[in-house]
Amino acid sequence: MTKIDILPIYYHLFMKMNAEKSEKMKNFDETGLTLVELLASITIFSIITISLFSFFPQAYQYTTKNQSRTLEINVARGVLHYIEQQDYDLMNEIHNKVNEETGKITSFDSSSICDNKVTIADSTTMSSSETTMDLFPDRASCLSMFQPTINNKTYDAHNIQLFLLPYNWNEDDGKEMIHALERVFPSKNFETTKRKIQNLREKREKEPGTTYPILSTVVYVDFSPNDKIPGVLIEGSIVSEISN
User: Fold this and answer.
1) What are the angstrom distances between the C-alpha of 83 and each of 128, 138, 163, 164, 184?
2) Which of 5, 28, 56, 78 is most buried, taking the most CB atoms under 10 A from its CB?
3) Cα–Cα distances in Å, from 203 out to 36, 79, 206?
4) In angstroms, rounded to a whole number, what is the distance separating the alpha carbons of residues 144 and 17?
5) How many other C-beta atoms are found inside a 10 Å radius of the C-beta of residue 26?
6) What CA–CA distance (Å, rounded) separates 243 from 210?
7) pLDDT, tens digit only, all 244 positions of the chain
């Protein structure tokens, strides 16, 4: 076989290999992603990513609210305990005086309660004179309860509301509490609080009577006043040591 006879063979092999390579490239082009498919993939990936990113702020907000709720419960219990230690006769006289003058329940705001002064009848004299005194003589203790500092933050902007009511308070008293809270926290949705107040009143109606004079106290604590979720509301009482 001469050198001239070999050339056609190499040329034939080269053309065959080139044809196979072209066929592979053609098949690759046919099975690749089109522009529409690529855009659709990017869109789906973006939706999934945005959904995941929106989950983290919600989880953080939920955790923060739970922490705030725990603080609110602890502070509300502390305020109730503090009020229960106060003199029943003084608190009852304040409540009766407010009720006689306004026909409403007695309410206090944490931003001003520690500066409140009350005028009561002077029992030390035979005359009908009156004397003015601080509602809470120990102002430092009062501020620690009603304007607490927690984690280097002082809550002194209407965060705590205190209500004094008769022991057998009624539905109108409950509505008055809600109206008072709505005036202080206009952005709140108090539907759950309304049900809580109704449950407290119904529970009180089922309880047996007592021979001791009792003044009901209701404390509302809210450390997130600008959101729609209501704070914590719990009930306590101030009991006279002298029975009827």
Assistant:
1) 28, 13, 11, 10, 21
2) 78
3) 65, 22, 5
4) 90
5) 10
6) 9
7) 444 455 555 556 656 666 665 665 555 445 556 777 778 888 888 888 777 666 666 665 656 677 888 999 999 999 999 999 998 888 888 888 888 888 888 999 999 999 988 777 665 555 567 778 888 889 999 999 999 998 888 998 889 999 999 888 999 999 999 999 999 999 999 999 999 999 998 888 787 766 668 899 999 999 988 888 899 999 999 988 765 5
Rg of the Cα atoms in the chain: 37
Rounded Cα–Cα distance for residues 185 and 53 (Å): 31
What the block records as the tokens of 42 is: 């990017």
The enclosing H or E element of 197 equals helix 191-206
**CA distances (Å), origin 154, targets 56, 60, 62, 109:** 28, 22, 22, 15
Residue labelled with tokens 């933050």? 153
Q: At what angle do helices 171-184 and 191-206 cross, to 10 degrees?
A: 150
